[in-house]
Amino acid sequence: MTRIASVKTYPISVPRPAPVWTAHEEITAWSVILTEVKTDDGLVGYGEIHGASAARICEWVARFGEIVQGMDALAHEAVWDRLFALTSPRPGAIEDGQMRPVPRGERNAVMAAIGGIDIALWDLKGKAAKMPVYKLLGGENRPVFTYSTGGYYPRDATIHSAAEEMAAFVAKGYRAVKLKSGGFTVEEEIERVAAVRTAIGRDTLLMLDMNAAYGLNDCIRFARGVEAYDITWLEEPLHWFLQPADYVQLAAATRIPLSHGEREIHRYTVRDFIECGAIKYLQFDSTRAAGFTESIRVAQLAEQHGVFVVPHHSPEIHAHLVLALPEVGYCVESHGSDVRDPLPHHVFRDRVTFRDGHIHLADKPGFGLEIDWDAVERYRLS
Ligand SMILES: [Mg+2]
């Protein structure tokens, strides 16, 4: 049996030349936590986590690493269940000398930590089997459709300043682009979307990522205002506290499909978003929470409901999932240049290649991540 020997993290952060905003928050750096799981017979698997705070998440990975040490490294379901069980009370937990149930306030960090360990185990599994993860899942290698995200708001953003940036992605070969949205008033945003549509032409797909900018009525007004610009999806359209019932109301009021999922941290809330019928695209992010195992579970439910799987972020991980879903695996997210997102371009060497609006996975075992350790050392947080 291949047993887990150790679990380690490498928190990495690259400062941005200047801060930018989504509708919701300021972004001052590109950050990732690499996870590393080693086995007693010399295999090494790598995963990645996107979340905050890095210190809290790394602490949880370390604690969980002790708990799973000695477990079968190929038993990803058993490891997942062992760790997830720690998020709820159990009989005798106060006295049994084991780890106490995790505090409520730590849930996001804990689910991120579980995710990072789980992804590394999938990488390890692929290396043990000498197969890419998509092949383990029965997927066939093919080019994976991708879009480039842009239109983040710099401090001096104007209504028209994103149009040129989005057009530049099209010039690089992207056939789809996603515009950060929701930073201005509804009327200003409608004008901004119109400017982007003019700049990218009629044949480029255009998604809008609203980062939960609006309440229901404002969002309906916005959606109706941009319908004429042929929008592929509205992503995270509603405030963070709004629920599937609110998405049902929004979906009934616009013909633009809705996309959701990157902020959900487990499959049970995702289930309710899928089953309510309001969303057409699912963006669950295994690197933010709960890992690749959970992303397979939600993808299979999505498939049963005809919901397209379009995972948020990390194409080097999520393209493997998309390849395993012939019916509903639709696309992955990219950030169109190394200026926009230096982490994947520098920390992961030979990660994925972009050509003709698609990414192409190599036939390497696991997720095929080649890590540039010099870059890791350069950008590593102490
Ligand atoms: Mg988003």
Morphology call:
globular
| Number of domains as seen in the coordinates | 2
Structural class: alpha/beta
CATH first level of the largest domain: which class?
A: Alpha Beta
Sum this structure up briefly.
The chain is α/β, with parallel strands linked by helices.
Explain how this protein is built.
The protein is built from 13 helices and 15 strands. By secondary structure, the chain is an alpha/beta fold. The chain has two domains: 127 residues, 2-Layer Sandwich (Enolase-like, domain 1), CATH 3.30.390; 245 residues, TIM Barrel, CATH 3.20.20. Strands 4, 5, 6, 7, 8, 9, 10, 11, 13 and 14 form a ten-stranded mixed beta sheet that branches. Strands 1-2-3 form a three-stranded antiparallel beta sheet. A hairpin with a 4-residue loop joins strand 1 and strand 2. Bound molecules: magnesium ion. Magnesium ion binds next to loops.
Mind sketching the topology for me?
Elements: E1 4-21, E2 26-39, E3 44-49, H1 54-68, H2 76-84, H3 107-129, H4 133-136, E4 144-150, H5 161-171, E5 176-180, H6 186-200, E6 205-209, H7 216-226, E7 231-235, H8 244-253, E8 258-260, H9 267-275, E9 279-282, H10 291-304, E10 308-309, H11 315-323, E11 332-334, H12 342-347, E12 348-349, E13 353-355, E14 358-360, E15 370-371, H13 373-379
Parallel strand pairs: 4-5, 4-11, 5-6, 6-7, 7-8, 8-9, 9-10
Antiparallel strand pairs: 1-2, 2-3, 4-14, 12-15, 13-14
Helix pairs in contact: 1-3, 2-3, 3-10, 5-6, 6-7, 7-8, 9-10
Bound molecules: magnesium ion.
